[in-house]
Design a protein that fits this description.
It is built from seven helices and six strands; from the N terminus they run αβββαβαβαβααα. It has 220 residues and is an alpha/beta fold.
Length: 220
């Protein structure tokens, strides 16, 4: 029943597509194909802020394919907020005058088009993915008439479910749900994964991909 309803919703959304060249977004899902992605932005309001950088990494089975990845810087018309620069260390001058050594500089339209082609058929993975999805939808909804149709997996929810299962097995869980720390650094520490320290889009996407793979392995 759920699969039928999802199919119906996708068909309705596809009919709203303004650009036939992007029909590939509604192709069948590729089993076992995941893309973990992360955005750095000018601020935290998806209604008005812009994407500064976007990185995405493919995951196939239990392998994080760093050789199949995107690392994009996006040209900015407005000012990047000072509090955002403290987090991702990207200034306006960094996305105007030169490209970084590892990221390609392009316009917003170019970056999002490349991202859409990169994710076709894949399930999207992220940490507090709702925000990153909203930032991409802010760009594509006026342009294409649709939101991202890809299935989505939130790693903090996967982690929470795993901690609940472990608490049940150990007999530590009573009537109340356990208090679980869902901060990014705590999840990495608990799963014994490396913390790369630098919070840029590519590093965060890579660490999130490692979290996803570890959780998948532990569940199997």
């Amino acid at each position: 029943m759920l699969a039928w309803l999802n199919g119906l919703l996708l068909r309705r959304q596809k009919r709203k597509l303004k650009e036939p060249g992007f029909e590939f977004l509604f192709n069948e899902e590729v089993p076992g194909s995941y893309v973990c992605f992360d955005c750095e932005t000018t601020g935290l309001d998806p209604k008005k802020d812009k994407i500064v950088s976007l990185s995405a990494i493919k995951i196939q089975g239990n392998q994080v394919l760093t050789s199949q990845s995107l690392n994009l810087l996006i040209e900015q018309e407005g000012l990047i907020a000072a509090e955002s620069i403290v987090v991702h260390r990207i200034r306006n001058i960094d996305v105007v005058e030169k490209e970084s050594s590892s990221a390609r500089l392009m316009t917003e339209a170019q970056a999002i088009k490349e991202f859409l082609e990169f994710i076709k058929g894949s399930t999207l993975v992220g940490y507090y993915l709702e925000f990153d999805i909203a930032m991409v939808n802010q760009v594509i909804k006026p342009w294409l008439g649709v939101n991202l149709p890809n299935r989505q997996v939130e790693v903090s929810a996967l982690y929470y479910d795993q901690m609940v299962r472990l608490a049940k097995r150990s007999g530590q869980q009573g009537l109340q749900q356990p208090n679980i720390d869902l901060t990014f650094d705590k999840i990495l520490h608990k799963l014994k994964l490396p913390n790369l320290g630098q919070h840029d889009a590519f590093s965060d996407a890579l660490m999130t991909a490692l979290i996803f793979v570890k959780l998948q392995q532990d569940r199997n």
